[in-house]
Amino acid sequence: MREFYDEMTFRTNVVAKKASLALQHGLERFEVTPEQWSVLNVIDQKAPISQRHVAEFAEKDAPTVNRIIDVLLRKNLIDKAVDAKDRRITLLSLSVEGKQKVQLIRNVVEETCGNFYKGLTKQELAVFVHILARIENNLE
Fold first, then answer.
1. Which residues form the HTH marR-type domain (predicted)?
2. Residues 11, 108: Cα–Cα separation, whole Å
3. What is the CATH number of domain 2-139?
């Protein structure tokens, strides 16, 4: 059984690294890292959103998200605004430039992911996602 677990762990790590590198390569032309993309994607889908909620949805710790947000602000990809209901909360949304860039990036991400899953049926992918969720649950 140990050899089987070793092979599963090794194969999982190899695939994860290859997928991450492929995504990183696709994002290079936009001068955005995969980590920055994950934050941009959350902001795009959930804006206006607080930094705390970005961290929760992106499954990253608060200091990491804070650093990424600082970079995205310097790149003029996101805007900050004070919450009208609670002035202690800062809400994030995409800037005009950010919206344009996110759409271009999304096209590349979808193409890249399409290549990852080429030849697999929707049913196979659903089983794969289900298995990954169970493994993730076991790790928590």
1. 1-137
2. 25
3. 1.10.10.10
